Amino acid sequence: RKLPIVFDPILVDMNFGTGAVKITPAHDPNDFEVGKRHNLEFINIFTDDGKINSNGGLGFAGMPRFKAREAVTAALQEKGLYRGAKANEMRLGLCSRSNEVIEPLIKPQWYVNCNSMAEQALDAVVDDADRKIEIIPKQYVAEWKRWLENIRDWCISRQLWWGHRIPAWYVTLDDDELKELGVYNDHWVVARNEEEAQLEASRIFAGKEFKTTQDPDVLDTWFSSGLFPLSVLGWPDDTEDLKAFYPTSVLETGHDILFFWVARMVMLGIKLGGDVPFRKVYLHPMIRDAHGRKMSKSLGNVIDPLEVINGITLKGLQKRLEEGNLDPSELKVAKEGQLKDFPNGIPECGADALRFALVSYTAQSDKINLDIQRVVGYRQWCNKLWNAVRFAMSKLGDDYTPPMKIVPDIMPFSCQWILSVLSKAISRTVSSLDSYEFSDAASAVYSWWQFQLCDVFIEAIKPYFASNDPAFSSARSFAQDTLWVCLDNGLRLLHPFMPFVTEELWQRLPPARDCTRKESIMISEYPSIVEGWTNERVEYEMDMVESAVKSLRSLRSLMPAKERHERRAAFVLCRTDAAAEIIKSHELEILTLATLSSLKVLSENDAAPAGCAVSVVNEALSVYLKLRGTLNAKAEREKIKKKIEEIERQQESLTKMMNASGYQEKVPPHIHEENVAKLATLMQELLSFKQAGQHLECEIAAEASANEK
């Protein structure tokens, strides 16, 4: 039956019950049939009128259960009350740690009626007109609905010796026939403390002598933890923290406890705090091993984060298994699993690499298949980051003082470009963080550091620092300022993902002129978009430069190993005046990034250079790299031939689609325009590759002529 339980400051309805099974006299023949169905053994200790024999429970208190059963049977037989026992085949539960037999013990329990609270918690998430909580990712809203639309009474009693005590006191009256705790359901009182319990008992049982005993049960851990958002702010007292910070902003937790913890916090928060406890819930994926298996001690695939951070040998991993409680067969399987997955143990990766790897994994649905080698890769990247920043800072010099502000328009091309792409990286990172797309945010930061700052900008400005050439004096100064701005913003941008290495490196940066720097990068401002840095024209031109450089590097990689690092002459065939102008104006960047000895720009009227490997960059550009030895023109011709065949297939497929019946009516105008542009690009690329093929045919003919002579 229901008893009102007081949880300050309001009343919560709670059910007090005796469980799902009702005990009845076992001499009823039907009871033996029930027992059979439920694999129970019944022993009759009842008198014929259905009451417990007055001597039934005496003399057995404190006896071990198995001995008590024998004693009870013997006592019943002695008194002529034994009606017999029937053995039933059953599944016997054993404790995995002690091997003790686990048996159910039916006890009265306290329950919370959750119907109204569940309805409010459900509306807080799904009510479009008044949504109070956003669950991220959205697919877990369905899980939220499934639990709360099928809510049941919540059993909050736990028979443990730790936890919050149930706030209920049992009243034992002096004139009660039975004195056991809880034997009379109407003798319970609920209060905030023992003093209030005494007062309530005096009111209910006025004029009677009694004593009160608090229920020894404790609250379900999920009930106690469900109060977390309130209790940490001082509730039930009306504290300043509670007024200032409740409700909180974001809860981050695993999706596996969406109901058990999150829903309970929301229900209790609304009921006891008057509002939802947080506005957003971010649910992270669950971590599994590299093969997608759930981590299990018996499989030996449990990964301790500290062992990834600090490193551990295979011997150390297996010693940890031996110190556990696995049986010999499980231990053997676990050791074999560790030997297979970690033959050399786990190398020291550091906290930053582990953190970055886990964040990068968050795009992987609801599971993270954690591959330690990926963490190792990020550790190596931390080392590269450290060395790159140290190198960059060496170009600043000991007496360098950063400027208060910079003006990109008067800076060299590469400086304008890196600031423009930095502003976009900041925009993508901030936008991704705001939308809880943490993997996208990590990718944006990583890509800027690795592929733009380190691979391009730092390499492109090296000529400015190679000598004290007065021609580079201004460019050198601008490059120093840009370097400092990039390091300062880049480290602050990366800090949430790699807090330790960024703090260490940021502290080494010189502070800006006439500016008091914060004591830690942690409390400095996070970077924000600078509109004046964005330059689409510069980015377009650098894209063309990078495309040419990548094609030249690709040609170099095909050379014999001993020739790959030699500086070579190169040519760029430009099929448009605009492309020729861009390549000519950025000759220094191409020479530097592609490691060339010289660069010459050709037009379509110029003869193709002899003795060169060729690569078609796009419809506007082809590049040629001078070879030292003999060109394998036939092999290059085969590559060109395959590329031509691939483009012709794409062209034929696109043309067929555009000529299909109903295409004009069904396809939106912007899609049609894209297809027209794509078809034009394919036709131009086809022409470019055919020209390259003709060049190789000339090379083959020249080679054949030389051989004849």
Written description of the protein model:
This protein is of the alpha+beta class and 709 residues long. The chain has five domains: 111-166 and 217-284, Rossmann fold, CATH 3.40.50.620; 286-348, no CATH class; 373-511, Isoleucyl-tRNA Synthetase, Domain 1 (Orthogonal Bundle); 535-628; 630-708, Helix Hairpins. It is built from 25 helices and 20 strands. The protein has a four-stranded antiparallel β-sheet, with no helix packed on it. Strands 18-17-20-19 form a four-stranded mixed β-sheet, sandwiched between helices. Strand 13 (248-254), helix 9 (258-273) and strand 14 (278-284) form a beta-alpha-beta unit. The longest helix is centred in the last third of the chain and has 40 residues, at 669-708. The radius of gyration is 38 Å and the shape is elongated. The model is unreliable at 1-53 (pLDDT under 50). Residues 416-562 form the Methionyl/Valyl/Leucyl/Isoleucyl-tRNA synthetase anticodon-binding domain. Belongs to the class-I aminoacyl-tRNA synthetase family. It holds the Pfam family tRNA-synt_1. Its EC number is 6.1.1.9.
Summarize this structure as a short list of keywords or feature phrases.
valine--tRNA ligase, Valyl-tRNA_ligase, alpha+beta, 20 strands, Rossmann fold, disordered N terminus, EC 6.1.1.9, valine-tRNA ligase activity, nucleotide-binding, four-stranded mixed beta sheet
